[in-house]
Design goal:
The chain has helices at 19-24, 45-51, 56-59, 63-77, 90-94, 131-144, 156-165, 173-181, 183-207, 224-230, 232-243, 260-265, 279-286, 305-318, 339-353, and strands at 82-83, 99-102, 106-109, 149-154, 211-215, 249-252, 270-272, 291-296, 325-329. The strands form 2 sheets. A 7-stranded parallel β-sheet has the order 1-4-5-6-7-8-9. The protein has a two-stranded antiparallel ribbon with strand order 2-3. It contains 15 helices and 9 strands.
Amino acid sequence: MSANESPTGQQPTATYDSAFLRACRREPVPHTPVWFMRQAGRSLPEYRKVREGIPMLESCMRPELVTEITLQPVRRHHVDAAIYFSDIVVPLKAIGVDLDIKPGVGPVVERPIRSRADLAQLRDLTPEDVSYVTEAIGLLTAELGETPLIGFAGAPFTLASYLVEGGPSRTYENAKAMMYGDPQLWADLLDRLADITAAFLKVQIEAGASAVQLFDSWAGALAPADYRRSVLPASSKVFRAVEAYGVPRIHFGVGTGELLGLMGEAGADVVGVDWRVPLDEAARRVGPGKALQGNIDPTVLFATQEAVEAKAREVLDTATGLEGHVFNLGHGVMPSTDPDALTRLVEYVHTQTAR
């Protein structure tokens, strides 16, 4: 049974009535739930301590370390959900793609995908490839109790952009050249990545994740017509593949104000909104039947407490009347953020929205 199901005649799971899952289902909540993207990460001194000397990809493959890092922000900030500590390239590494995460750079692929022959790098992902994920989530759910765990994966477009470019890019010229110049190869690449991504999410759900988030971090680089034609089919395939589990599915991208309706159309139950679009306007663009997640600017956390609370109040005011709202940043926690600012923000939102 999934964490989002409560079959007749059976007791619901421990997380079923959590504020986070209720908000995702667009049900009444005791308070607006809060969690932060990148809440488990470099902003926490305890994270830096346990990660010291351990490369990023290796740290993602140590179940006990993953468990500790995932739990750190729950203990410190009292957020309403944990997010599984990993990286979007983990499933690619698990199937044998030659890549590494270089400090200060990001994922770097040794042999970028530029031709049909290069697709051979992408075999199917099996649960055995990521057995450490299953083990870590088992450890986590035992510790988290009533606090939901969010699983996650990179969306096909964002993974493709890394694979084709060979690393991070600001312009995506190689990826877009393939998308425009060889649309069949592009479609085949994204379709294969959709299968890998879906398999990775299924492992997390079957191990005990209560919800999943698909990060299409770089989709904001696309025009709506290109997104609909060249990206939407693959993202939709991922969401369809995990629909039967009944867990909430969240879809997030950066700079995606013009794509919000399409991102909801892809099949998400919850659409993440960055800080550029107010939530009431985002709701209009997404349309009915979806919860929204977001969307305070992460840089606001560097301002005074009064300024942070004023901005949080703005977000809460624009969320008035939404079918469901999960409070979050409009992007991830920045590494130099004061952790205490996050703790205070969680307390403020909980206090202001207590029902």
